[in-house]
Specification:
With 223 residues, the protein is of the alpha/beta class. It has one domain (6-183): HUPs (Rossmann fold), CATH 3.40.50.620. It is 38% helix and 15% strand. The chain contains 10 helices and 6 strands; from the N terminus they run E-H-E-H-E-H-E-H-H-E-H-H-H-E-H-H. The chain has helices at 18-31, 54-65, 86-97, 109-112, 124-127, 141-145, 150-159, 165-169, 187-195, 206-214; strands spanning 6-11, 35-40, 71-73, 103-108, 129-135, 175-180. Strands 3-2-1-4-5-6 form a 6-stranded parallel β-sheet, sandwiched between helices. The N and C termini lie far apart (48 Å). The structure holds adenosine-5'-triphosphate. Adenosine-5'-triphosphate is lined by residues 11-14, 19-20, 23, 107-108, 110-111, 133, 135, 183, 185-188. Adenosine-5'-triphosphate (ATP) binds next to helix 1, strand 4, helix 4, strand 5 and helix 9.
Length: 223
């Protein structure tokens, strides 16, 4: 069996920026993915709720993906106001794409090192592969794993795949680490720049830059 996997990138995308887009592009190329689905999260009613309303985050993500046919906007989480767990989102993707289709959950090293705190995290491996994107200059994941949770380390050691081919040969269950050049961009730093009246140009696509300007997003200094 060899089926091109579908990549999945969840995030608050508050706002989406070039770091997210490069991460997706690197995974697409290095792993031979057929597409990357961007899944902006909903707005749970707690203090870490996103800063921009769901409708704005959705519109910005849509603008950012324009012009790349391999990048797909997936709206399954954005309109939800209850907490949305990755395990449920992956189960719904699995139901939609069938049992054979390889699915790859994409995430940075920082997110992977906290995976053991996610709701029903061990079930994730039954639903998807995990592709960890390691940024140049950061602490290599292999080293960081030495200080990580023992359960997570055991899963990592048992599931680590030597090459992207493993992602095409099974629908779920492997962990692959891929490298990307570092782009020191975060949504937090973009929001801070906006609030401080500093330019955010060239940190995200022009279309998203224009959208933020016209809708006067992130102008309040509450970050
Ligand atoms: P915030 O600053 O609000 O926490 P963020 O910029 O980290 O936001 P998220 O929406 O939380 O964006 O991130 C979604 C995913 O994108 C995460 O897996 C995160 O590791 C990854 N990511 C974010 N910024 C970058 C970047 N500059 N390069 C590579 N990956 C990134």
């Amino acid at each position: 069996m060899s089926i091109a996997p579908i990549g999945i990138l969840g995030g608050t995308f508050d706002p989406i920026h070039n770091g997210h887009l490069r991460l997706a592009q690197e995974a697409l190329e290095q792993c031979g993915l057929s597409a990357v689905r961007f899944i902006p999260g909903g707005t749970p009613p707690h203090r870490d709720a996103p800063h921009a309303a769901a409708q704005h985050r959705l519109a910005m993500t849509e603008l950012a993906l324009q012009g790349n046919p391999a990048f797909v906007l997936d709206e399954r989480e954005i309109h939800r106001t209850d907490p949305c767990y990755s395990v449920d989102t992956l189960a719904s993707l699995r139901a939609e794409f069938g049992v054979q289709q390889p699915l790859c959950l994409l995430m940075g090293c920082d997110a992977f090192l906290h995976l053991h705190t996610w709701h029903e995290w061990k079930k994730l491996f039954g639903l998807a592969h995990i592709v960890v994107i390691q940024r140049a200059g950061g602490r290599p994941l292999g080293n960081a794993m030495n200080d990580s949770d023992a359960d997570l380390r055991a899963e990592y050691q048992a599931r680590l795949a030597p090459a992207p081919r493993a992602l095409h040969e099974a629908p779920a269950g492997a962990i692959l680490v891929v490298d990307m050049p570092a782009l020191e961009i975060s949504a937090t730093s973009i929001r801070r720049r906006c609030a401080g009246n500093r330019s955010i140009r060239y940190l995200l696509p022009d279309s998203v830059f224009n959208y933020i300007q016209s809708n006067q997003l992130y102008t309040h200094a509450d970050y």
